[in-house]
Design brief:
Blueprint: E1 3-9, H1 13-20, E2 32-35, H2 41-53, E3 63-69, H3 77-92, E4 98-103, E5 110-116, H4 126-130, H5 139-153, H6 170-177, H7 182-196, H8 200-206, E6 212-216, E7 224-228, H9 229-234, E8 241-242, H10 243-246, H11 252-265, E9 266-267, E10 275-276, H12 283-292, H13 296-309, H14 316-366, H15 369-378, H16 380-396, H17 405-464
Length: 465
Amino acid sequence: MATTKLFPIKTTEVKALAYIANPSKTDNGRLIFTYGCSSDPAQASKDFEAVRAGGTGLNTVLSQHFIQSFKPGEITPERALEVGKELCEKFLKGEYQYFLAVHTDTDHTHIHVIFNNVSRANGRTFESNMNQGKVKERAWKKLIDLSDEVCKRHHLSVVEHPEMGKGKSHWEWDMNRQGLSWKAKLKYTIDQVIKESEDFDDFLRKCADFGVLVEYNPDHKIDLKFMLAEQKERNPRARFTRSRTLGWFYETEQIKSRIAQYQGCMVYVPRSKIRVVTPKAVENKFVQDAIERGNMKVASIAKNIITAYGVEPDQVRGAAMAAFIERAHLVGELNDLNTQIQDLQEKLKVLKKYRKVKHIGEELKTLSSREEKKYRREHGGDIAEYHESCKQVLELYPSGNIPKVENLEKHIASLQKKLSKKNTEYNQADKKSRELSEATRTIEEYLRQEQSRDQQKKRKRNDLE
């Protein structure tokens, strides 16, 4: 979903301009557009200063910087540049010089815009014009609304209810709303690397390709740590996250197992017990011993698993991994369905509007030359609306094969029914994934403790001997 963030620049304007103009981020400058200033960062700053010198009043702010981020995979860089231009036209109204750059170096395309804090139109500051006094909606809110308006026109997803939690920026709030907090986004990205990796060494190498920084030291107790490169870029003091903090599914051995399964080691048996083709693990004996000795916690979990999912205790790890993969697959299907529905709903709006004004064009064709001139004088607004509606329809259906509104409504209803069914499947898969993951974590923690006790007993026997 497209999100925005706005903040002032007080001291490092030249550096900020140089950063957003970085050739490695903007396809060697191809994805840069400027208005009223040079495309060279140093000269652009001088162009800004020339206007500020003729401005009114004193202000510590040199320029303003806003970022518009798009949902991963939803927009091309070229289209993002056009969206950015349109947003600048609506937000700045030709009154402020600006430097626009599209960045393609992260998993989500985003634009940076730095604009002069002083207006060329009246010499007043941005704060004076748009961000103080009795202005009901502050500039950041206006930017969000305009961004949503432009994105909807381009059929891009937006935040439907941009309520913000205390202490969070709009961008941070939306990341959390999508389940894309830093931690959630990091986990998702690691999942993608795992799918593409041949083995654990290949996984470590490919992390960089997906924008993940990784620290691996097998000699340390905490052997694996991760961080998104994007997070480091935004906050140089950000720290690496331990794999265990992300969850047992992201620890070294689990990642190795998941890679092996993606390489074809898993056998799926639909609607029945899920088995993993692996050598019989030594741990199986410990699970059975725990149950036989009456360990209440492990025995209770094992009983619940067998009852609910038909999974034996020694198969729970593989079952948890299979459930997680199934859940991820359903997320992809849900996203595809939502995209289809949103696209068709936008088309439906256009077609309904066209059907409403279609009679105007038909009536024009029946009029004589004199009658047509009179009709155009009296109904100029309606005719303009008709032509605009025709233009929108042709953009959507250039072949001229325009579907009926009723057929489109039926198609949307069918997809919504399918979406509802898929949502039910997802909720069940999500519940299963969480419960099996928790069961695996509990059982494996118990096994670690049992092995540790056995080792301690062994050492004591050796000491006595």
